[in-house]
Amino acid sequence: MILQLLRILFVLLLSTPLFAEQPPHVTLHHTWKLHPAPDTAPHYFVKIGAYLNLSHAREKVLSTEFPTFILRMQDYYSVLTRPIGDFETARERLKAIRQQYRDAYIVTLYQRSAIAKPPSPSTILLDRGITAFNQHHYEEALAIFDRILIESPENVTARLYYAKTLYQLKFYDEAKKAFERIRTASLSGDVAAEVKRYLARISHKRHRHRVSGWIALGTGYDNNINLTTDKNTTRYGPYLLLNNTRKTKSHFATAEFSLTHQYKAEHFTLINRLYNYNELMHTAKGNDLNFLDLSSTLVKRYQQISWVVPAGGNILMMEGKTISYNLYTSPTLLYQANAHTELRTRLLFNDNHTEYAKKRDYYLLGGGAGIRYHVAHITADLSAALQRYDAKERGRYDVNKDLDRYRLYLQYRLAKTVHIRATGGYDREHYRDLDPVMGYRREDAKHYYLLSATKELTKQSALTASWHYTNNHSNINTFSYIRQNYNIACKYRF
Fold this sequence. Notes:
The protein has eight helices and 22 strands. By secondary structure, the chain is α+β, with helices and mostly antiparallel strands. The chain folds into three domains: 2-111, Alpha-Beta Plaits (2-Layer Sandwich); 121-206, Serine Threonine Protein Phosphatase 5, Tetratricopeptide repeat (Alpha Horseshoe); 212-493, Beta Barrel (Porin), CATH 2.40.160. The chain is elongated and about 105 Å long. The strands form three sheets. It has a 15-stranded antiparallel sheet that branches. Strands 1-5-2-4-3 form a five-stranded antiparallel sheet, with helices on one face. It has helices at residues 2-14, 54-63, 87-97, 121-134, 138-151, 156-168, 172-183, 189-206; strands spanning 32-33, 42-51, 68-72, 77-81, 105-111, 208-222, 233-236, 239-242, 250-264, 269-280, 289-302, 305-318, 321-329, 332-336, 341-354, 362-375, 378-391, 401-415, 418-434, 441-456, 461-474, 481-493.
């Protein structure tokens, strides 16, 4: 207890402002001390804080807009400005700093020897960057090394770590250029060998095949499998339609499978994907569903811009009979505005062939734009799209329509193994042809919400529970409906 009280008293004495008496022979740093020595001049520092732990002191150093460094005390860490040669200049500096840090004050220290010099701002920044790199804070490290290279482009250490950081962030093209620039400098044997190893890794990563996939099994419940109104009867012009609500509710089992092959070449990436979704054992008979999609996507990146061109086809079957099949493509342009923000714009073309009803085939042409923001544990995505459906043959008033679509997606990583996702959307459909029974054009407004939570059980397996709510309101009542869907599934990745 007495020892603890003495320690607290000691910290308070060291925190006393400039003109308080300092205890003799207290060494603050290997370069600086409190007592004057022969032939040494005083140096003045503005102290902006004292912290019990090193990580808090580093956070303060990174948040200041002027050069600072951390000075180790016995029981805590101080954050000081760079040395100031005369007291009047120090006072002016203190006056400016106190606008932001009211508890700042001046301390006076002496160099241990005439040869010893305080670390330069670039050295302090370099240490900061290396620390951030070693702690896997790569985005922060990249910003620091970039700042150093603007002021000191020939700093080989900063350039080496800059290239290594680009590699860790998977910016392989930029990393290759940075490493090749380092090779032109005169390097020690160890550094040259390290650069050679990194270039070999980049070459391997840019020319490789990778196969991955997953399988998921689950169960679900749908309270409106046929998208009908929740009323027993509904009127459609002169007709009174009956609705058996018992046949619109169904329990079922789900099985999903995905297999992806990725080939990375020097100038592009090719991704081939097979996806299959099945709903089985429906309690509402006649609703077992099979969906199969096969696609290839070409990705071409140039600095901050990426072209993504997927093309593929899918087939939808119910009870073993083909319902429809589609051929589609969706060229997309991505722009990486900064480390956290991605902008995109895309076109969509779909050629649909419907088997279960005549003259329902259509072409779909659309386009849209979106923005994606990712920081720490949060991902947000906002998008809008316009789509036009055109029937291939005349006589289908329920096919020709224009669709406005808006969507917001949020993901939050609650912990390392828990992810929560929320999606909200709004669709508005404008039919271009008159409904022959009602005598006016149909208009639908649909809003929907999807909530899901995923718990990673192991590195390969995860459990997901989801709830999907849809409310479609139409100016023709027979097309209005409310639907809720509940699912739980276990996924295994390989």
